Amino acid sequence: MNRRRPPQPQRPPPRQRLGRARRLPALDRLGIWLYHHRQTLSESLDRLRDAPLASGMTVTVIAISLALPALLYVLSENLRLLVGNWEQTAAISLFLDLKIDDQQAQTLASQLRSWPEIARVEVITREQALAEFRDLGGFEEALDRIKENPLPIVLAVYPQPDQADPAQLEGLQERLLELPEADFARMDTLWLQRLEAIIALMRVIALLIGSLLGIGVLLIVGNTIRLEISNRHTEIEVMELVGATPGFIRRPFLYTGAWYGLLGGALAWVLVGIALLIIQAHVSRLASLYHSAFKLTGLGLGATGILIGASILLGLIGSWLAVSQHLRQTRTF
How far apart are CA 121 and CA 108, in angstroms? Predict the structure, then answer.
């Protein structure tokens, strides 16, 4: 005799289950939400570990794309620091007539210090100039044969900070040349201003290259996420059938894109550091020729945060675009 099975309780549809979940206390909903995010974050990292070759290639391409503009930015910042140090040198070197002695030079320097456009004036005597010339090296034999010091007294004229405009400096130089004690003058800051213009150009180039390569990172991450969506197509269909929301479907891919961005940004930081170590040897050799010990500075804390943050943001945007395109094609919205 066949017994009739008792009716089984039917499972509520997804929308009804979602409504019940929303009736949970706020703290419970927050705990469930955080737990799911932690689980998705861990699972997305595990998926990258399961495919080390493909993941490593993607991360490396992202790192190289970000390291190039970052390295150009670091080099421009080091040049800016170097120019800042050089700006401490005299803006105008006023060479006095050979007939002028030290006392007359000191008197003239006192007069120039009263000019409103001049910040300070330093007197470089003949003996000091000869000692500096001897320190340059390579002229010892010639200097030993000279019985009389042929170098003139030099006044190192430092203009006020608001007098750094090239036209103002040229006007000041012309006024100095009108002095009866002056022989000739040399401008020391014009080439620094040209170098500053080159540094500004380097920054613009770094920005343009960074923008173009940033678009490349978006395409790389988007294409990688699109391939992963294709591989998990069946899983996504099942989630859609049980009533998963677009945000639920999108979440693991967003975390994957964020992992790509984080790892790519970290590797880019390492590549910039390695490149600076390689360049530093040549910079030290060049600086030694000028009796200097200039050392390159790497990405600071703020620049590192911007690099990694921008990398993560690019990874999120690229994955968002890829998943959104898939959801539009499947008419999820």
Answer: 10
* Domains of the chain from N-terminus onward: 40-85+194-329 (no CATH), 89-188 (3.30.70.3040)
Q: Show Cβ contacts of residue 229 under 8 Å, excluding neighbours closer than 6 positions.
A: 236, 253, 322, 323, 326
Tokens 């919205």 sit at which residue?
333
Q: Which residue has the tokens 């099975």?
A: 5
Contacting residues for 202 by C-beta, under 8 A, at least 6 apart:
72, 75, 76, 79
pLDDT at 269 over 90: yes
DSSP state letter for 10: P
User: Could you tell me the two tokens for 87?
Assistant: 């700006």
Comparing CA positions, the residue from 308, 212, 215 lying closest to residue 260 is 308
- Write out the E strands in the chain: 92-96, 118-124, 154-159, 182-187
On the question of pLDDT at 210 being above 90, the answer is: no
Tokens of 151: 């170098």
User: Over the stretch 19-34, which tens digit does the pLDDT of each residue have?
Assistant: 544 555 666 666 666 7
Alpha helices by DSSP H, listed for 146-189, are 166-177
Would you state the torsion angle of the CA atoms of residues 266, 268, 270, 274, taken in this order, to the nearest 10 degrees?
180
Closest of 182, 185, 183 to residue 171, by C-alpha: 185
